[in-house]
Amino acid sequence: MEYMTTAPTGEQPRWLTDEEQCVWRAYLHATTLLEDHLDRQLQGDAGMPHIYYGLLVQLSQAPRRQKRMTELAKDAKITRSRLSHAVARLEKNGWVRREDCPSDKRGQNAVLTDEGFEMLRRSAPGHVKAVRQAMFDRLTPEQVRSLGEIMQVLAAGLQPEGTDADLPWLR
């Protein structure tokens, strides 16, 4: 396979070193496997993908177990269209309902139902067990701290400020 040797602007690209390439591929491999592991566990235990579980968690922690759809998309780091599809599936299961936002007639709130809260309560122990087994039980306390610091640095650098930023929840 041929690779580009110059950037579209004509500048020489700053290629990854062998070590960086190895780290990058290990990161991609591990995150793909972790997401698949959590999806399989939640599909088996609760009949839902990991992203839906995350939405239920967000709603369970919100005041009155409800959140504006735009805020929920922002917190979940997903597009509004993907959120709308996910909430529709959660509504079909009876775990979430939508309500008009009283302070903004254009907006809607997603509300965690009692059935949704109960599903979350039942599925949480298996989920946390899967997270522990897949991640935290494999790391030393120092590695956990380092990983947390690294992820915070990456997240801070990837989340631009401003209303014109190209972020999923703004799409």
Structural notes for this entry:
It is a single chain. The protein is mainly α. It contains six helices and three strands; from the N terminus they run ααβααββαα. Strand 2 (96-100) and strand 3 (108-112) form a beta hairpin. Helix 1 (18-46) crosses helix 5 and helix 3 (69-76) packs across helix 4. The chain is globular.
* Number of DSSP E strands: 3
Distance between the termini: 34 Å
Shape: globular
Most strands sheet = 3 strands, antiparallel
Strand order in the sheet with the most strands = 1-3-2
- Rg over CA atoms, rounded to whole Å, is 20 Å
Task: Give me some keywords for this one.
171 residues; mainly alpha; three-stranded antiparallel sheet; 6 helices; 59% helix
Task: Please provide a brief summary of the model.
By secondary structure, this protein is mainly alpha-helical. It contains 6 helices and 3 strands, in the order ααβααββαα.
Layout of helices and strands:
Elements: H1 18-46, H2 50-61, E1 66-68, H3 69-76, H4 80-92, E2 96-100, E3 108-112, H5 114-134, H6 141-158
Antiparallel strand pairs: 1-3, 2-3
